[in-house]
Amino acid sequence: MGSVEEILGQLDKESYVSLLSKLIGESKYVQNNPPELIPEEDRVVKHVLDVLLPHSTTSGGGPLIVNHVTYVQGRGNVIIEYPGTVPGKVLSFVGCHMDVVTANPDEWDFDPFSLSIDGDKLQGRGTTDCLGHVALVTELMKRLGETKPKLQSTVIVVLIANEENSSIPGVGVDELVKHGLLDKLKQGPLYWIDTADKQPCIGTGGVLAWRLRTIGKLFHSGLPHKAINPLELSMEALKEIQLRFYRDFPPHPKEQVYKFATPSTMKPTQWSYPGGGINIIPNECTITGDVRLTPFYNILDARKKLQEYVEDINGNIEKLGTRGPVSKYVLPEENLRGRLEISFDEEMMSGVACDLDSRGFHVLCKATEEVVGYVKPYSITGSLPLIRELQDEGFDVQTAGYGIMATYHAQNEYCLLNDMCQGFAVFVSIIDQLEGDTS
Q1: Catalytic residue among 41, 42, 129, 163
Q2: What CATH number corresponds to the domain at position 114?
Q3: Active site includes 50?
Q4: Could you give the number of structural domains in the chain?
Q5: Domain end residue (candidates: 289, 316, 344)
Q6: Most buried residue, 2, 114, 293, 368, by CB count within 10 Å?
Q7: pLDDT by position in tens, the chain (length 439)
Q8: 229 with 197, same domain?
């Protein structure tokens, strides 16, 4: 018998594109934006099972153990296992999710909900994030089921529901972990396949969404000395908050080791006010934004600090910088003070720093260099849900992906067929290398 790489060979492009076409055809029905859009992941599951069940122990007489696990009707997960010969020797590919973000067909150059092909481009919602990867790991397990190589390692793939919006808990990987169905994955490297650009993603950021409401006093803009201008107050306060944030959360030395594209940031992204005429100073306004925190800081500490900044500014609002000769935030004769209120979204995420000393990381790097031609691990303060929780539970989480980063959650999403072929080859190389381990 030849090597694992010889047995498993290369990605069957025709089979892959055929499956991906069916999955993208379901993308309209797996958009995740509750309460309006609740995905029906079992529509994707059906096509996966059509491919794998002929090679399963239950209905096809094959080696694959296929488990369709559902906690919410119509929103299943799939665990596929190819058994190895050595107990406790496991590697897994997890994170390929069967829901997608929304897409407005009026804003796309092609139909987002059907697969279209333009040369090497495979176009449609989910091609990069993440139905392209669902199809890829399905094809990997199909190939294992067909060729039946004798492996020491048990290879496990977990396809998950409800990754794009975790406001509805108890649906996907969180529930699988809770019920112990992924416990055996702790015995080897866990590759979370939901990033892009064919390189190991070794670090991600935590995220905390905040909302800063500023209350002033409404008055005619021709008499600004009788107003407390919340726009001016919020701008000055936000500047002070940012200065304090960057003092307390400066660039961390480990960010260079992990090659983070940016350090931690705290910045506004939206602005709103009640409306009214241009000659009216409004009584309030709201700035919203987020914190993106590298994993070397604690997201709960950041939330606590922001709250402290606001409380201190409120208590010393006379000391805050003003704008112009009549700009003020206190009207003593009326016993009025401008004030700030900060609130946070309940949902927040912690960042991840992968273990750069683990065997799983070194194997991924070697496979990437062999297949892609170079290896250049990177980190971003973009956030991936769920994986920090896995890491905290004791899983050796490594992340990679073979879509196009620039098309993540974007209009006109696409991936490249050649990139997915390379991804398949990386997976095969990982299996082959871990087969050579004697530990």
Answers
A1: 163
A2: 3.40.630.10
A3: no
A4: 2
A5: 344
A6: 293
A7: 568 999 999 999 999 999 999 999 999 999 999 999 999 999 999 999 999 999 999 877 899 999 999 999 999 999 999 999 999 999 999 999 999 999 999 999 999 999 999 999 999 999 999 999 999 999 999 999 999 999 999 999 999 999 998 678 899 998 999 999 999 999 999 999 999 999 999 999 999 999 999 999 999 999 999 999 999 999 999 999 999 999 999 999 999 999 999 999 999 999 999 988 999 999 999 999 999 999 999 999 999 999 999 999 999 999 999 999 999 999 999 999 999 999 999 889 999 999 999 999 999 999 999 999 999 999 999 888 888 888 988 899 999 999 999 999 999 999 999 999 999 999 999 999 999 876 5
A8: no
The pLDDT of residue 439: 52
Task: Report how far residue 100's alpha carbon sits from residue 415's, in angstroms, rounded to the nearest whole number.
Answer: 15
Q: Cα separation of 180 and 354, whole Å?
A: 22
413: left (phi over 0), alpha (psi -120 to 50) or beta: beta
Residues 103 and 174 in one domain: yes
Q: How far is CA 178 from the centre of its chain?
A: 20
**Residue 370: CA count within 13 A, CB half-sphere:** 17
Q: Examine the domain organization and report whether 178 and 124 are in the same domain.
A: yes
Instruction: Please identify which of the residues 40, 41, 99, 290 carries the catalytic annotation.
Output: 99
Residues 30, 144, single domain; the answer is: yes
Q: pTM of the entire structure? A: 0.88
H or E stretch at 293? strand 284-293
Query: Can you give the CATH number for the domain in which 267 is found?
Result: 3.30.70.360
Whether 221 and 193 share a structural domain = no
Burial of 438 (0-12, 13-18, 19+ CB in 10 A): exposed
The DSSP 8-state label assigned to residue 127 in this structure reads T
* Residues 14, 414: Cα–Cα separation, whole Å: 17
Question: Beta-strand (E) ranges in 47-164?
Answer: 65-70, 76-82, 90-97, 116-118, 121-123, 154-160
- 171 with 273, same domain: the answer is no
Same domain assignment for residues 364 and 332 = no
- Whether the CB-CB separation of 396 and 355 falls below 8 Å is answered with yes
The verdict on 51 and 195 lying in the same domain is yes
Q: Are 64 and 55 in contact (CB under 8 A)?
A: yes
Is residue 163 flagged as an active site residue? yes
Show Cβ contacts of residue 327 under 8 Å, excluding neighbours closer than 6 positions: 224, 229, 232
How far is 6 from 380, CA to CA, in rounded Å?
35
Domain boundary (326, 344, 362) is at 344
